[in-house]
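Continuing the series of single-chain predictions for the mutant panel. This is the parent chain; the variants come on the following pages.
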Amino acid sequence: MISSNMELISETLAGGGPNPHCAGAENRPPASAENQRTLGALFSYGGFSFLNLGDLDWDMEMKLSCPVNRLGTVTLYQTSRHGAFDGAGAPAHLRAIDPQVVVFNNGPRKGITAPHMYDRVADMPNVEGIWQGHLALTAEGHNTAHDMIANFEESEECEGHWLKASVQADGTFTMTNGRNGYSRTYTVR
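Parent structure:
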């Protein structure tokens, strides 16, 4: 467990340490207490790690990552707060966890509501794949490849297609899109 009921882990996990991206990093005020109470978890299997911080906000991300990155790097990261640019995705935090693959758990009009968050992730040098729960209708031109988007409809018409990560003991993991069966295999770095 990484976060729960407004509390964060206090220890630094393996691979963590001083974060050079904190110098001059922007801080933002806390979001609602409801979002800060979210359960955040880090799951590991061999060299693979999956980080899901739920609705944790920018303020709490910074507390996890600055001045010390308490989490280390992660293989698969599901964006906090649906990939909302203004509420989460602090650059110093994203650079610290340095994800290999990112899943935006966005809705058609929730999450990637502006191009900035998608671009912030896409511009990270070590990101090998970006997957999305929904086509971001309000961020035209700032979506991943269509094969890597599970749903294209408005919420009322959404069929609820899934994205799945299958992790193997040999250090590979495969992302699969339930809408079209498209998959891509990655080797844990």
